[in-house]
Amino acid sequence: MIVGASLGVAMVGVAIAYWQSLAHTDKTMVVPKSLPKNVDQQLSGYTYTRSEGPRKIFTVHAARTVSMTKGGSTVLQDVYVEIFGPAGTRHDVLRTDQCDYDPKTGELYAAGKVSMELNDFADQSPGASSNPQHAPDPVFVETSKVHFTQQGTLAETGQPVSFRTARGSGTARGMKYDTQTNWLELQNDVVLKLPARGGPKPAAEAVLTASDLRYDREKQEIDLQGPVEVTQAGGHVSGGRGKIFLQGRNRLRQMLLDDHVRGTETTPDRSTEIKADHIRADFAPTTSDLQKIYAEGDVEGQVLRKGRVSHLAAQKVEIAFAGAHPHPLDGVATGNVKLSIEAQAGSSSQPVQSTAGGNIRAANQELDAAQLKFSFRPAEQTLREADTVGPGHIILSSADPNTGKREIFGDPLMMKFD
Questions:
Q1: What percent of the chain has pLDDT over 70?
Q2: Which of 74, 169, 281, 324 could join 255 in a cystine, given CB atoms 3.0 to 4.6 angstroms apart?
Q3: Rounded Cα–Cα distance for residues 143 and 166 (Å)
Q4: pLDDT in tens, 64-95
Q5: Please, which residues have CB within 8 angstroms of residue 219's CB and are 6 or more apart in sequence?
Q6: pLDDT-based confidence at residue 6 (cuts at 50, 70, 90)
Q7: Which of 314, 310, 251 is nearest to 283 (CA)?
C-alpha cells in the first residue's frame, strides 16, 4: 500500500540534492580584445580588489576602462570579476562584455549578457578532489541585467536565467546570489531537469518545477515554494511547499513536503496514489538511501493491481525501506485506521487468512482498528500480513449478494494475504 507514491516523494529530494554538488575549478580567463567606440578616454588593464584585512573579497578585472563625456560614470569593457567570499575559500567568476562600476560603493551593473561560474559550494576536505564522487561540478549561469549591490556581495536580476552542471540543467526567471552569507535563490518559474543515468543506481529522467528555490549553504537547507512538482517516468509528486535538509557534502538527510501532498505512480501492473497533509522522508547518513517515509494528516493511499483496489486511510502512516533500490519492509498506521480491499467487476476474490476465522475468500474486505502494523513482500511490494494493535474488526462481503456479510472481531486481529 502507498509504496510507489512514497518512492516518488523521495524522488523530490534526490532530484534537488543531485545537482547541488558544486566544486572548485581554477581556470585561466581569456579576455576578448574588441575596441570601444565613441569615447573621450581609454585606459588599459584595469584591476580593482576589495579586501577585508588580509582576505580578498572580490577582484574586478577589465581589459579597458572608458571615461564617458560630461563627467559620466566609468564603464568597464571585457570584464571578469573573481569573487572569493568573506572567508576567501571559493572562486566564483562573472564575465560580461561591458558594465558600469563604482569602486567607492562596490556596485556593478551589467546590462547585457552575463555569464557566471559558481564554485563556492566546494568540498575543501583533504583528498576530496581524488574521490570520483567529489569531482568538480561548477554551476554555469547565463542571464542579463545583473546588479551587484551591498558592496559587491549581492548579485540579482529579474531576467530569465539558465543554469547547467555536469549533472543537470534548468531555467528560472529572476535570481539572487549572496556571496557573503552563501545562499542562492531562483525566484520564479523554476524548472530543473536531471537526465537519465545508469550505473549501480540507475534513474529515469526527472523534472522538478517550483515557484521559488532557495539554497542556504551554511544551514545546508533548500526551501521550495510551490506549487512544487516532480515528474519521473510514471511517477508524479506535488505539494504546496517543501524543504530539503542536507549533510556532509550535500548528501540527503531529510525532506519535507507540506500542503496537500499528492503522489502517484503508474507501472504496467499497477497504479498507486497517496495523499496527505504532510510527508517526511528520512535518508541514510552515508548513502542517502531512503530509510523511512512518514505521512501525517488525513492520509489516504490506494493501489489498483490485478483487478483489485486496496485503500488505506489513517491519520498517520510510517513505512520503513531498505536497499539501494529502496523497497518497503514494514510499517504502521495509526488513528482511525481503515483498510479495504475490493474486487473490480470480473476479477477473482482474494483469500485472507485470519486468526479468528481461518482462510476466507471474499470479494470485499474492510478492516477497522485504532492501530495497524503491516509488512510487505519486497519483490512484489504487496501486503504480506497485517496485525492490529488492540481490537480489530473485519467485514467480509461475498461476491454472491445472496450470501450476505460476515464479521470477525479479534484482540489483536492478525491477517495474512496471499
A1: 76
A2: 281
A3: 19
A4: 887 654 445 688 999 988 988 767 777 889 99
A5: none
A6: very low
A7: 251
β-sheet bridge partners, residue 374: 331, 386
Cell of 54: 588580509
The three grid cell numbers given for residue 159, joined into one nine-digit string: 531576467
Ramachandran region, residue 38 (left: φ > 0; alpha: ψ -120 to 50; beta: rest): left
With 90 as the cut, is the pLDDT of residue 134 above it?
A: no
How far is it, in rounded angstroms, from Cα 385 to Cα 376?
7
398-404: long-range contacts at Cβ-Cβ below 8 A with a sequence spacing of 24 or more? 398/362, 398/363, 399/343, 399/349, 399/362, 399/363
Residue 12 to residue 237: CA distance in whole angstroms: 8
Buried residues in 47-73 as b, exposed as e (16+ CB within 10 A): ebebeeeeeebbebbbbbbbeeeeeee
What's the grid cell of residue 405? 456479510
Closest of 283, 305, 303, 309 to residue 294, by C-alpha: 283
pLDDT at residue 156 in the model = 95
- What gap in Å lies between CA 168 and CA 251, rounded to an integer? 16
Distances (CA, A) of 34 to 64, 77, 78, 108: 10, 9, 8, 21
Question: In this predicted model, what pLDDT tens digit does every residue of 7-29 receive, in sequence order?
Answer: 344 444 444 444 343 333 333 33
For residues 141 and 116, is the Cβ–Cβ distance under 8 A? Answer: yes
8 Å CB contact between 83 and 107: no
Confidence of residue 351 (pLDDT cuts 50, 70, 90): low
Residue 236: all three cell numbers together: 508524479
- Using DSSP's 3-state secondary structure scheme, residue 408 falls into strand
Q: Which residues contact 367 (CB under 8 A, 6 or more apart)?
A: 337, 338, 339, 340, 386, 388, 392, 393, 394, 413, 415
First to last CA, the chain: 15
What is the DSSP track for 245-309?
EEETTTEEEEEEEEEEEEEEEEETTEEEEEEEEEEEEEE-TTT--EEEEEEEEEEEEEEEETTEE
pLDDT at 1 over 50: no
Partners of residue 236 on adjacent β-strands: 231, 264
Strand stretches in 127-196, DSSP E = 139-149, 154-165, 168-178, 183-186, 190-194
Q: What is the DSSP string of 215-237?
A: EETTTTEEEEEEEEEEEETTEEE
